[in-house]
Each structure stands twice: as structure tokens, then as C-alpha cells.
Amino acid sequence: MTRRYTALGFAVLWCTAVLFNACKDKAWDEMYGRPDWLADPIYQQLESRGNFTSFLKVVEKAGYTNTLGKAGYWTLFAPNDEAFRLFLAENQLASVDDIDDVTATAIVKYALAYNAYRSDQLHQYQQPGGAIDRLAYKRKTAYYDFVKPGPSLRYPRIINNNTNLGFYNVGDNNYKHIPFFLKSFMDAQQLTAEDYNAFYPDRPYTGFNVAGAGVVTPDILAENGVIHEVDRVILPLPSIEDYLAANPKYSYFKQLLDELLVRYEGNADITHRFRVLTGQPDSVYTKIYSPDLAFSLNNENHINNTTAGQMEGYALVAPENEALHAYVHGPEGILMHYGSFDRAPTSILVDLINAHMWGQNLWPSKFHTVYNAHQELASFDRSHLVERKLASNGFFYGTNKVQEANVFRTVYSKIYLDPKYLLMNRAVGTAGIRFSMTNPLLNYSVFMMSDTQIRGAGYDFNTNTDAWTYTVNDVVQSGIVPQNRILRILQTAVVQQNITDLSGEGVLQTFNEEYIKYRNNQVFAAGNEDHGTVVTIDSVKTTVNGTVYYTKGILQFTENEIGFHIEKLAAQYPQTYGHFFNFLLNSPSRYNATTKQLNGTSAGVMYTVLAPSNAAIEDAVRRGDLPGDPATGVPNFTPPVGPNADKVSRFLQYHILDGRTVALDNRSDDPMAVATLYKTDLGDPTYITVTKSVGQLSFRDEQGNVTQADAAFSNNLSNRTLIHSINHVLNYRN
């Protein structure tokens, strides 16, 4: 009896539990079960449509059935059966079964992009701050290249680098990107069908293309992503490096890279993975391009491992062997002085390669608006292109013309490419004027200074201390003073005009705003005049932005003060400069007769001295503007302390322009007010208005009096100063 009740109780409990669980499962399903309206996963969607049978076989061969049949978040560019029919015919394969496992895996993984995007979302650039519309034309796929055969027994296995920084980023598989071309993106970037057809000339641009395929049916929604049906099988695009290596027409360019700008570094992490996966004992090395290059040709990431690859790609323009060899080794080639790159500074090769690199998208229609790694536009046009390829990491162009880098075609090139001018080149770098000298829109004339000439003048560079030196009287100076001296000499040798004829006579303003003179194909600075030397022209070369003069001798600045040169002029031309110098000499408040320094002037500042002639000063004496005999005009150079001495002091100060050197030359300028050394009792500056026209230089004082520089006795060189003779004393009184 007890057993019967026990069995009955158990049965009741069991039924209750079943009913409870049934109710519980129903509630669970209602809350958490798969809703009826949810689309099937990608694999089942493809099955149900019936026109992806070939692709599904490839998916199974690649081992991706579970990936596409279960949870996930993918965008799939799925080729239909017609796409496979064309693929098999093009590759002479009888059936899908003849596609090998490696190719099958590549097809599937490259068709599979991370995250699910409808066609109206693909153009969005995904970044931490939120998506930005109409910027993206690529997505990262599940495909990446792994270990491949190396170049030698020393490096038997290699892997591509995944950064531009000279090291391998462990954990980043260097995934390839797949490109697509949406009308929304193309219109926003002002691109047309011509840009697409440059890479896929046999395929129509439809407004939604994926690589060389057209999209037949977009936006097939699935539980684990979005499917876009395409009409071509898409194999993983080669990288820029792959395209370069595939064509022997560019072998010289590749050779220069591989031999001089590539290194191989052991990769312990990838070696371990490779050995585990294959059972082979080989070590794996990362192929690393020099970080001095704009980018690594084998790097699939743009700006390393970020989402920037969605909207940007690199570009390489590879010149054919014949064009590159002529540019490098021709009679006027960039190696005409060095002979080979291994004897030249590495920077020359780096500059050559970087000139052919663009760190951003270079669409065919944008050659003359997008800048390369040197911030220069293309020197070629589309007529020079012999090949156009869209790569997984950017753009590859083959060309029959070399990109002419500005460092190789401007005045700077004659310094940079010749080992006789290494010190001058170093000085250009120290002075920071290389960028200006390589600008083809700015004109220059350069007077060359060889290493022999620079050392002959006492200057050198100590690579051990990384400092310039200057030796005088067997005493070696080092540091900032020698550096400033050599930079002053350098900048005196660079004129910001293209002077093609030095047979006449005149003055030239140099890069540091000092002046030098030329006469009958000889040039000289103030220091040369002090020493009675000249720089003679030996030969001349022309570049795209100016003229280069090879010289005998070196331009030198003066060590003397301005007063030294005024005194010298007074001795040479007493009727012109005699009175002015005598006023100066006898004004101790304005002039130090021992040091020859004009009080109120400072080292490193530009000045212009306006010295009235003797006749002009005598006229001023007659007017009472300067001390002396008003009847005869004879000046009194030593007036007693008081009003007359003050007149002389103000006169001297007012005739020195402060902070600017103006020349009588062949250039015209608008009138400009220039401050003088004289300041009013209230400390306010006083001004003289300077007007320049070709062959004339005039000065107007604050009373409206105008005087001219006397061409026969003007443009005298001094220490950052020009000294002019004028025919009227200017009135400082307001």
C-alpha cells in the first residue's frame, strides 16, 4: 500500500515538473527564443536562394560553413553561380572541385569583411568619434598573407611588416582591404567612372562596384550580417609590393629598394606560430622597409593599425628601368658625381624613392592636386602611365617618366649631389633653407663654396662633437659662434633672384638681406673689399629655379664696424664723404673713434647710412641747420656743448636708417616709411620715406624735402649696412 502511494506521488510530481518545465520553456522561448521574423544566417540564406551553389562549395572547402551558418557580424560580397562560371572559364578549370584549398580559402576570406554594412552604410568612415559619411571606399577583410618563401638561405621564410615604423606589431595580422565604389563616395570625392575604369577598363561603372565586380543584388539581410551579391569572383588584390615584384620592367627600382632600404629581422612570435602550424623548422623574418620611406610597401595598414585604411591608401609610381637608369646614371644624372648609391649618402636614394611615393589616395584624375611624400605634385601626367593597378593597400602606377624631385632639379641639387660640397650642404641644413632653395617657384642664384674653400677660410665640422669649428691663428673655436659665422657666409652666397648676367656692375641682396657687389663677372662682399680680394666665376649651370655659379674664392663678411668704412670712404672721396665723417669723428656721443662703432647701432642689425655730400652739408650750414659759418657754409665740426652740438647729434642719428638696408639697384618698391636712429624727446621714432625705382633711390624727410642717392658714390658695403651719398641734408624736425 505504501509503495502504491509512493509510486503515485512520484508520478504526480513528475507530471507537475513536466508541466512546469513546459510552461517555463514556453516563457523562455517567448522572451529569449529566436524570433520568427529574423532572417536566416548567411549560409542558409545563400542556400535558399539557389544561385550560390558554387560559392557554397568553396565555403565548405575553405572550412567556413560554421562561420557563415552561425552567429557573427559580417559583410559578405558573395559571387553568384554565373560569376563562378566565368572564373572557371578564365582559369581553365572544369569545375569548382578543381579549385584548390588555398584559392578557395582566399576567395572566401577576401569576400568576408568585418562588421555588417548595408549599401547605404559602406561609405561611412568608422572612427572613434563616430562615423563620417562619404569618406570610405574600403573595408578590412578576413584575409591576410602569412609566411612566404624568403629571398635567400639566410632568410628562408619571411612575413610582411605591418607598420611603417621599422618594427613588427605582434598581434596584428596585417589584414587586406577590399575596395568598393559607391556613387555617394565617388560624387563626394569628385571622382568619375573614368577613375574606376582606369583600373578596370573592361568593367562598367554602375555606382556600386566591388573591385572588378558589379553588385547584382545589394542588401540581402541575414541573422549574422549583410550579403551583397556580385557578378565576379574576387581574388585578394596584390599589395603595392606584389605588383612591383611581378613586373620585370620595374626591376631596377625594386633592386634599389631591396638592396639598400630593406632589412630582415627575426620574428620569434611568427616563427613559433609557423612551426606549430606546419611542423617545419625554418625561422621567419620580418621584411622591414626603412622608416625613412613614406610607407612600407608591404604594410596593409594605413597609419599603422587604425581604421584609416577604410578611406586612405598609399600610392607608388614606379618608373620603368630605362627611364630610371637614364635619370640616375645619365650624363647629368643624379649619380654623375658619386657613381653608385652605395657611395652616395643614403638620403639621396631615400629622396629618390620618396619622390615616387604618395602617403594618400592618388586617383588618376588627381595627379595635379595631390602631393607626394616631398609635398610636391606629379611632374608627369597620365600620358606617361604604362600601367595602373588598384592594390590592397593603395595604388600602383607604372610610368615611362621619372618623378623629378625638386631636390634633384633646383639650385640645391648642385650642392646636394656633389661630394665636393658636403660642408656647404651641411650648412644649408643647419640654416634651415633647404626647403626654400628647393621650391621651383622661388628664384635663386648661388655662389658655390667647396669643402676645400670652406676649410681654406678656417671652417670645418667636427662630427665627433657635432659642432662647427673656426680656426684663426692656430686657435680652434667651436660651438655657436663658428656656426653663426659659417651660416652668415652661406647665406651671403645665396641670392633670392635668378641673376643670369654678371658682366655689368651692381649690387645683389642675399638670403640674409645683406648685400654683395658684382663687377665684370666678379663678385665680392664687404670682407672681400677689406682684404682686396674678389670671387671669380669659373663656370655656370642652370636649374629650374635659378643659376649656380662655380667660383674661385669665397664671399666673406667684414669684421669691421660701420665707422671703419665711412672713414675709408672719406679718405677715398674727401669731397663726398669728408664733412660727414668729420662731424662723426668729432661727436663722441655718437661715435667711438677707437672701435669705429656708431653709438646706437647693434651687432646683427641692418642699417643704411645716408651721408650728405660736402656741398649738401655746406648748404645746411648756410640754412642754419648745422653749426658753422652761415655766410661761407664752412662747417664747425667741434661745436661746444649746447644747441649746436645737439644739432650735430640729431643730424647724425637721423641719417641712419634703423633695421633696414636699402639699395640703389634695378628693383622697384612702393614707398615705405623707415625709422631712423633718432628719437624725439618723448621717445617717439622719426621716419624717412624711401622710394625705389629702377636705377633711382630717393628719400623724403618729415618736412617733405626729397633727396636722391648719388649713383656714382653709393651702394658702399659695410657690416650689414649700405652707405649712400645723398645731395641734400634731411630735416629731422617735426
Automatic annotation (TrEMBL):
Q: Where is the FAS1 domain?
A: 39-234, 551-730
Q: Where is the secretion signal located?
A: 1-21
Q: Which domain of life is it from?
A: Bacteria
Signal among the record's keywords? yes
Keywords, sorted A to Z: Signal
Q: Which residues form a coiled coil?
A: none
Cross-referenced PANTHER family: FI19380P1, PERIOSTIN-RELATED
Q: What is this protein called?
A: Fasciclin domain-containing protein
- Recorded source organism is Parapedobacter composti
Taxonomic lineage of this organism?
Bacteria, Pseudomonadati, Bacteroidota, Sphingobacteriia, Sphingobacteriales
